[in-house]
Each structure stands twice: as C-alpha cells, then as structure tokens.
Write a structure and sequence with these properties.
Two copies of one chain form a homodimer.
Chain A (H helix, E strand, L loop, with lengths): L18 H5 L7 H14 L12 H8 L3 H13 L3 E4 L3 E4 L23 E11 L2 H7 L6 E11 L2 E11 H4 L14 H9 L5 E10 L2 H7 L6 E10 L5 E10 L5 E5 L1
Antiparallel strand pairs in A: 1-2, 3-4, 4-5, 5-8, 6-7, 7-8
Helix pairs in contact in A: 2-4
Chain B binds a DNA duplex (19 and 19 nucleotides) through helix 4.
Chain lengths: 260, 260
DNA sequence: AAGTGGTCTAGACCACCAC
DNA sequence: TGGTGGTCTAGACCACTTG
C-alpha cells in the first residue's frame, strides 16, 4: 500500500484552492490561528450577508485542506469572538448584533413601561463635525456628519435624550427619509437604507450635571446628575459607524456586572 | 445520549474508576457536559488548592475512560468559564480571582496616583446583620457579621469609602488581627487567615447623593452625587463571602464596556 | 530527560432542520 | 431525504517547563 500521509509537494500535486490565502499569514502561528484570520478577514470584508450561510464546514475543509477538527476549532473561536453564530442543521452565519436593547440594561424605568421605548426624533440635520465627533468617528474634523437629536420615552415618560452623529457620505440615504419614518430602532434602518451592519460597540459611562435643555426634556431639575452613555458603534471591520451620546436621570441608572 | 459503545457492561469488565461519578449525571447531556459538571464539582468542593496542579489530562482520561479530545473540550470550557487556568508544561490549576484591582476600573483618579491605592481601616467591629446585609450574604437576618469601614486613598487624596460585611463564624480569625495588619488587599488576607478563596463577584452600579459622613471623608460637598458600587463576592461553590459597598465622587467615575 | 499541555489529523456516528 | 452542525474516538507529533 502506498500510504499517502502528508501530500508531499514534490511533483505538480494540486494544492487546495485556499492554500494561497493561508500562505499569506504568519507561518509561526498555529494553523487554526492562521485559518481563523483568513476566515475573519472574509467575514469582515462583507463577503457573506447575515442572511446567507457560509459554506458548510465540509466545503471549507476541502477548500483549505485542513482537517475537520481544525476547522471546528476555527469556527468555535469565531463564535466565541462574536463574529459568527452556528445553528445546527441550518448553517453558519455572520452574526448581526442586536445592540438597540442593550442601552436599556443601563437604566431601570418604572416597571410600567415594560415594553419597548418609543423614539421621537426632535431634529435631523447636517452639521460640521467638531473635534470630539470627528475623533470618535475617525474622520477629519470639519467634515460633514448627519446629526439626529431624539427623545426616547416609555409611554409619556421621558427616559433618555440622545444625540447621534453619523459620517456623511455613508449615511446620506437617511436624509431622504422623513424623521417619522426612521423607526424606533435605528440599526435595522442603517442596514436597510445604507447597507451598514453594526457589529460591535464600545460604551463609556460617566456622570454629569444635566444641561438646562436636557433637564427640560427629561423633566428633571436643572444641574441634577445624569448618567451619560457614550457609544461608538462599529462595523465588522472596525470602521466607526455611529457616535451616540445618551443621557438619562441618574436615579434611574443601574448597571450590573458579573466578574468571572 | 451518545452511549459509549466500548466498554460493554455485560461481564465483570472493570469500568473506569470515575465511571460511577459520571453515571450520577444527567444521561441526556453530552458526555463533555456531564464530565464538565463532575470536574467543576470537584473544583468547587475545594479538592485542589490554586497552588497544586490538577491531575494531568492523561491521568483524568484514564480515570474517567473518555478520549483525550473530550477531556480537552471539558478543560477548555472550564477555562472559558473562569474556573481553571492551564499553563503549558506546568499543569492545570484552579483559578484564583484577582478582583482587588477591578474596582478601580470604575473610577479614574488623578494620574498622579498611578500606583496602587492605600487602605486605611477606620473601624472593625461585630454587628448584627440588617435585612439588606443578610440578604446579600445569604444568611439569616440578625446573625452576626464582621463590619469593616475603610477609606482608600491615592497618596493623601481620598478616593473611595467602603463598608465591608463578612459572615461571622467564617471570618472570625480576622478579629484577632490588628486593623493595621489587614493589608491593602483583603482577598489574600481572606485566603491566608480564613481559607476562603474569592472566585467571582457581582457588582451593581448606582448613583446616589453623598451622606454627610461620606462627604466629609471624601472631601466633597454634602449631597453631591456619588457613584455606588455594591459587590457580592463568592467562593467557587457560589457561597457569598463578602458584601461590599464602595462610594466614590461621581466626577471621578468612568466605566467602559465593550459589546461584542 | 520526563512530563505537561497544545496542535493536528482521520474517521465514525448522531441530532437537527429544511425541503 | 439530504445536508448541516454536534459529539466522540484514537493516535501522532510538537512546544513548553521543570528538575
């Protein structure tokens, strides 16, 4: 028997189609780490939409010429990383984040408003970016951004005041949508009208005194403490998509962390 | 499911020594999940100290009669869970948490105090537990607890006021230690003198107005907003070990979260 | 040098889901 | 029914740490 243990490369042995991509990665890394980067790069490039499954693991195993165990290790890492999700019997999918609900983990409101909060867009207009906004969005100061100002309420109870800034060439389609049609959830709107998928975010919590304008909108006293959540939302490739500043009365603020 | 085809139970075939423990788990679960619970239970029972390695994976593979791949899956899950840590060439160890530094992720102080904060114990005394304390510690209201009151400072700058409650039969040894000898870090002290290892914690952040006493200690105005961090620290088996309430000036508060 | 965990492979069978 | 991911096994070799 001519056992073929390792597919020696001597003659014109046809390599796996994906071998070239693997060869471009750091050869000092373990194979699973190298393959993980290759797959992650394909995901970040937007090659697969969150609605279409990736090729089956068996197909990718053949494509890259690795074993099933290695391929599964790659997938498990990417799932842990939050890039993918797997559904048995269905396939492997690019994960689409659902961050809109997350903000409300920070605030507790009268149990009355158990449902989802409504949004009222107070204004939507072009604006020249300040240094802070430009820095958050990774753009050059002075370039134009779209600015949304909105109020979120539970029933008639004001809960949060938000300012949202979006880099402008990218989010131009939103300008042609009536403020009332933007919907309560913005991220699906970003995806539908601008093709931008929010995949991750960084939030920073601080405490400040309410401005006169915010106090009026929130129905709290002037200079009363408010909790401020600053969020930068990003695409899979890390590109900043949104800079958001949300304020809510400090007495409604509560946040839980579990430490390992 | 996934009945193990090998090792039929027909004759007097000697089963693996660990088979009995596995048999006590829910047979509908995958083998790796069942074995994970068995190992986790042994860890939580305190069978291994954080300084002694667990048996090598080869030994456990033989003991439980599972394959190496399954054993490794179990270990990887337990590492992800934060229960264990593995060091190549050295062994697998019960993880000991290092939570003392974590509190200071919540607060930013003058970059001056770049080092570690000092602790000044203001008082240490027995106390009858209130309902709140008893509920946090999972003990019956009215039972005795040890109460520590301390101030943490960067240089001469007050940073945090803390109240710490410890269930009393357990932490009695601390009463015989001079307040000045408790040290800046309490968790190593708990381990050394009471044999209690803190493995996890839950923290809850809220915003309140400073009490007169706290304002005095923190050097801030009366009724100024303060950030409150309430922590329940637990052993590996989930038993509450400590209830802690830390307050710091709101303007020094800052917290970052990364959302997948 | 011996023992530990880390990587990788090959192949079998099972459970779930959609068509 | 066919294809997907999930589980489990067996065994080889490598890399790291310690004595």
């Amino acid at each position: 028997m001519h056992s073929v243990p390792s597919t020696p490369d001597s003659s014109g042995t046809p390599e796996s189609p994906g071998a070239a991509a693997l060869a471009r990665t750091d050869p000092r890394l373990p194979l699973h780490a190298r393959l993980r980067e290759v797959i992650a790069e394909r995901v970040r490039s937007g090659e697969w939409s969150p609605d279409e499954p990736l090729p089956a693991e068996s197909a990718l195993v053949a494509h890259y010429g690795v074993s099933l165990g290695t391929m599964r290790r790659v997938f498990r890492d990417l799932v842990d990383e939050g890039l993918l999700e797997r559904r048995q019997g269905t396939g492997t999918f690019v994960r689409r984040a659902s961050l809109d609900a997350s903000l409300f983990r920070f605030f507790r409101f009268g149990a009355a408003g158990s449902g989802f909060p409504r949004s009222r867009i107070l204004s939507a207009a072009r604006q020249v970016s300040t240094r802070t906004i430009a820095s958050a969005l990774g753009i050059t100061p002075g370039s134009e951004v779209l600015h949304l100002h909105r109020l979120r309420l539970y029933g008639e109870q004001p809960a949060l005041v938000e300012d949202i800034w979006l880099p402008l060439p990218l989010f131009e389609p939103l300008e042609r949508i009536a403020a009332d049609d933007l919907g309560d959830l913005l991220y699906p709107t970003y995806e539908r009208h601008c093709g931008q998928i929010v995949a991750a975010a960084t939030e920073e919590l601080t405490i400040e005194a309410a401005t006169a304008a915010d106090a009026l909108l929130l129905g709290c006293g002037r200079a009363e403490p408010v909790a401020v959540v600053e969020r930068v939302a990003r695409a899979h490739d890390g590109k900043p998509l949104e800079y958001r500043r949300s304020r809510g009365p400090a007495h409604t603020f509560r946040y839980r962390v579990d430490i390992r």
